[in-house]
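Work Package 3 committed the consortium to producing structural models of liganded targets before the mid-term review. Because experimental data for this complex are still outstanding, the team generated a predictive model from sequence and the ligand definition alone, so that downstream docking and mutagenesis planning could proceed in parallel. The input record is reproduced below exactly as it was submitted to the modelling pipeline, together with the SMILES string for magnesium ion.
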Amino acid sequence: MRDDLLLRLLDAFVVLTVAVAGLWTWRRWHYRSFWLVVGYPLMAVSVRTTWRKVALGCGLTKKRHRWWFTLVPNAVASTGMVKVRRRFQRIAVDTKPWMWLPRPTRYGWRVTVHLLEGQIPDDYAQAAERLAHSWRVHAVRVSSPRPGRVVLAATMRDPLVRVDEIPPSSELLKVTVGRLETGKPWEIDFRTVPHWLNAGATQSGKSNLANALIVGLSPQPVALVGFDLKSGVEFTPYGPRLSALATSRAECVGLLDDLVALMADRMGLCRQAGARNIWQLPPGVRPVPVVVLVDELAELYLMADKSEKDEIAKTSTALLRVAQLGRAFGIYLFCCGQRIGSDLGPGVTALRAQCSGRICHRVNDPETATMTLGDLDPAALVSARAIPAETPGVAIVAGQDGQWYRARSFYVSEHAAEHAARMYADLTPAWEEITAGTCGAEITEADLNELIDA
Ligand SMILES: Nc1ncnc2c1ncn2[C@@H]1O[C@H](COP(=O)(O)OP(=O)(O)OP(=O)(O)O)[C@@H](O)[C@H]1O
Ligand SMILES: [Mg+2]
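The resulting structure, written out as tokens with the ligand in place, is given here.
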């Protein structure tokens, strides 16, 4: 009898061990199917059953009066506020917000919640970290697709620890440079957001992102222009695909003059054709779009000695002109920098206002995050400062939709960017060709006002 029991126990132990080992292997080798079949249903049940406790703990409940029935008077004292003396009693109870069934996503799950009266999505955004800890997940992001609803998206583990390969971009001036925390591609689309600021401490992944752009834009019919005041170390290897490269202050002034003249020329062309921008021109006469890459923006504004003052003032004004008018005339800016602070002068602050695309890699000081991400949600600033040094390429991205995302660029080595630059060298339009016909026309204040108002 005892032997029989022992054998049965042994059998049960073996079956249990095999089952656990099987589940472990399944989870390890095909996490997505494991998550859908095993992980997600367990999690959905647990989230739904514990929602009341979690909402209460995170301060997302509201007190409401309810009729309460009890067979044992005084047994119910739900909140400790009202003692029940009769069988039916109106008492204050904590009401949880209504929650739909969680739906699985690539990296976790998402669920829609109905806001209680007086609640706003920001209440949930503020409780996001508490929710993440309560649910033991990596992060909870809050969005509000329509009034009265919030969607809580939970990610089980940081999806940005490893991101996969770069797919080739298919649309003009749009490059997929990485992946967002939500699993969606991270796209830089110059036609939607024409100018970008890309900030971050040293070794945070700024140049890697510029490399991704070089690889993505090289096969496209666009002209690439580089400003690299670090004596050209970053961009010189990509020379074959660059239509122009400025590596000294004098060259910067000359190249910016060319760009401003180019804009004036394109403005004339658009006026003649009655078009508001180059995209309204017929494809045959439409000039080639120009993407301007600036490495270490601060170098353009820093003064080594007084003799540079005039040149810096000129650079600053010309760069601002490009930012103000570039969009209409197919000239787009991508400015990288370790520091993009107001201490560099008023020109930088004005330029920053023109750049609606913001990317903030890991930063050392809170000011750079604030300057880059501006008046975004304070949680974005906290997230930017929490980017660990072990994950270069991770950044907070603010895009057109007013939302911010955590994202990571694909790793694109200098070698890969150099290879792309060499491979598509024959697509490089010559700078002389692009600027041919620009006769140094000036952009007057009146033109500027007209265009900015347009
Ligand atoms: N998305 C990424 N995935 C993996 N590794 C990355 C990624 N981005 C950058 N790195 C690594 O981090 C290192 C530093 O990146 P990068 O040169 O782009 O930094 P940076 O911000 O331009 O630094 P600096 O200010 O010194 O020029 C790179 O050598 C690369 O190996
Ligand atoms: Mg760099």
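Reviewers should note the following from the model. The chain has a mean pLDDT of 86. These observations will guide the Year 2 experiments.
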